[in-house]
TrEMBL record:
Residues 10-190 form the Thiamine phosphate synthase/TenI domain. It comes from Ruminococcus hominis. This is Thiamine-phosphate synthase. It catalyses: 2-[(2R,5Z)-2-carboxy-4-methylthiazol-5(2H)-ylidene]ethyl phosphate + 4-amino-2-methyl-5-(diphosphooxymethyl)pyrimidine + 2 H(+) = thiamine phosphate + CO2 + diphosphate; 4-methyl-5-(2-phosphooxyethyl)-thiazole + 4-amino-2-methyl-5-(diphosphooxymethyl)pyrimidine + H(+) = thiamine phosphate + diphosphate; 2-(2-carboxy-4-methylthiazol-5-yl)ethyl phosphate + 4-amino-2-methyl-5-(diphosphooxymethyl)pyrimidine + 2 H(+) = thiamine phosphate + CO2 + diphosphate. 2-[(2R,5Z)-2-carboxy-4-methylthiazol-5(2H)-ylidene]ethyl phosphate binds at residues 137-139, 167, 187-188. The lineage of its organism: Bacteria, Bacillati, Bacillota, Clostridia, Eubacteriales. Its cofactor is Mg(2+). Keywords: Magnesium, Metal-binding, Thiamine biosynthesis, Transferase. Its EC number is 2.5.1.3. 4-amino-2-methyl-5-(diphosphooxymethyl)pyrimidine binds at residues 40-44, 72, 111, 140. GO terms for molecular function: thiamine-phosphate diphosphorylase activity.
Length: 213
């Protein structure tokens, strides 16, 4: 499955932190209805069996909406359920090793904070890059902030699409205009909102306006 720039406009990363009695499935369906273009399933605390069960259900949902579905970090699970791809961090695995395990058709995303990391990831077979944190973020305590200058330099240094992640939301997405990104990856800007579907619609339209500038 190819990863196209239009798939990355509004990239939603799941987090069960804000379920409040809802299921993750129903929250993901709301972001898909609202216009999310890409879903990454991120689980830090589920055991393997429940993670697989959940991944299969959400994968089916994404197929229904024709939106790419990828898994955070877990290359084995990606292969086992034939997900569209995987997103790995710098420490998780070289993009080249992931490519060798998953074959040529899977989407591989890699996190990058520097131009050097970005260029290296592209060389080793990454399909897109997640760059951040571009703004201060509460979701990842260990997030390193990447300034907008560096974001722009990374976009200019690689030919694969770049998504900005970290603290991005409706209140500041416009600040990323002109950086060269293909879209934004968000967690709390969607999943922590009282009306998830409406928040997604709003952020999708603001992101499209920013990208058109």
């Amino acid at each position: 499955m190819n990863c196209e720039k239009k798939d990355l406009i509004l990239y939603a990363v799941t987090d069960r932190h804000w379920l409040n009695g809802e299921t993750l499935y129903s929250q993901v369906e709301k972001v898909l209805k609202g216009g999310a273009t890409f879903i990454q399933l991120r689980e830090k605390n589920l055991d393997e069996e429940h993670f697989m069960e959940e991944a299969k259900e959400i994968q089916e949902l994404c197929r229904k909406y024709h939106v790419p579905f990828i898994i955070n970090d877990n290359v084995e699970l990606t292969a086992a359920i034939d997900a569209d791809g995987v997103h790995v961090g710098q420490r998780d695995m070289e993009a080249g090793d992931v490519r060798a395990k998953l074959g040529p058709d899977k989407i591989i995303g890699v996190s990058a904070q520097t131009v050097q990391q970005a260029v290296e990831a592209e060389k080793r077979g990454a399909d897109y890059l997640g760059v951040g944190a571009v703004f201060p973020t509460g979701t990842k305590e260990d997030a390193v902030e990447v300034g907008k200058e560096v974001l722009k330099e990374i976009c200019e240094a690689v030919s694969i699409p770049v998504v900005a992640i970290g603290g991005v939301g409706a209140h500041n997405v416009e600040e990323l205009a002109g950086s060269g990104i293909s879209g934004i990856a968000v967690i709390s800007a969607l999943f922590a909102q009282p009306d998830i579907e409406q928040a997604t619609k709003d952020l999708r339209s603001r992101t499209e306006q920013m990208l058109a500038k």
